[in-house]
Amino acid sequence: MASLTYKCPNCGAPLTYQPGKDKSACDYCNSAFTLEELEAFAANQQTKEEEEHSHDHVDEKEDGSVMGYTCGSCGAEVVTDETTTATFCYYCHNPVILTERLKGDFKPDKIIPFAIDRKKAEAIFLTWAKSKRYVPKSFYSDSQLEKITGMYLPYWMADIKADVDIEGVGQEVNTWTSGDTEYTETKEYRIERKGDIEIDNIGELAFTKIDKPMIDSITPFREENAKAFSMAYLSGFFAEAYDKKRDDVQGEIQRRMERYTKSLIDETTNQYTSVDLNKEDVNYEILGWHYALFPAWVMTYKYLGKIYIYAINGQTGRAYGELPLDKKKLSLTSVVIGLVILVALILGGRFIW
Length: 353
Ligand SMILES: [Zn+2]
Ligand SMILES: [Zn+2]
Prior knowledge:
25% of the residues lie in helices and 36% in strands. The protein contains six helices and 15 strands. Strands 6, 7, 8, 9, 10, 11, 12, 13, 14 and 15 form a ten-stranded mixed sheet that branches. Strands 1-2-3 form a three-stranded antiparallel sheet. A two-stranded antiparallel sheet has the order 4-5.
């Protein structure tokens, strides 16, 4: 399969995208390039490589899907997951982009580039892990920190319009007492709510191989800062393509739109004591879809047979994770408490004697 490594135009070493700087840099000669410069250079380079390696060997499964590629830097055969679009060569660690998996229906429209770099992600994680008690030391060891992975996750984004036509009666009830008499005043209002509500960019994760509740808890992503997709953003990170189609997420997106529309309508009628609707027509229409990649730092940790996940929003830094509890650290504390009590008892005993 065709693969692409963004190489430094000066020295040929691999380039990686630099979060927050909006440039790609070479670790070897310290050059940095804008995405425009790189796109132009990579387009050139790719045509040359395609000519040179027109007989590249590929691994094809029986169903025709391609699982592997040949590393353009060291020549090794690398096998990837079917959905992987950006990764690193297992042997020489060069960043590799699987260009064929980013074409046609799989070409993202938008991307939110990483703003949080690895150093910052590690710092966020360490501050969190060390602030908790009874966390096993191995949870934040250097080898564990290396496992924090920068990943672009696939999302489906929908723009939806709700056509609202609601009629009913709202009642406002006031009660007061004057002397011995209690008065009740009931005012009735006719309610009419007609019009369109349009909401853009309702997003749903389009990937099944990651813990969705975990990733949902590091949202929201700020779509207004999304950029037009360019493969150069992927260099130096992992990226995955969707394995959930639009149809698979449409129901959930619509349910969220319904909840949102309802809360907006409720806000306009909540001054009434009671509301009785006799007409409630709301029709939803999806105006457009786009496919986007969002950044996350993800770490998994296996402790006593259970897998824990920690994730950081690669744009905003919002983090969420579960913590393993070190049973040894816990029981050590209870043993110390036990000893103190025992010592106190013995001392007490001596006094009695
Ligand atoms: Zn260089
Ligand atoms: Zn390689």
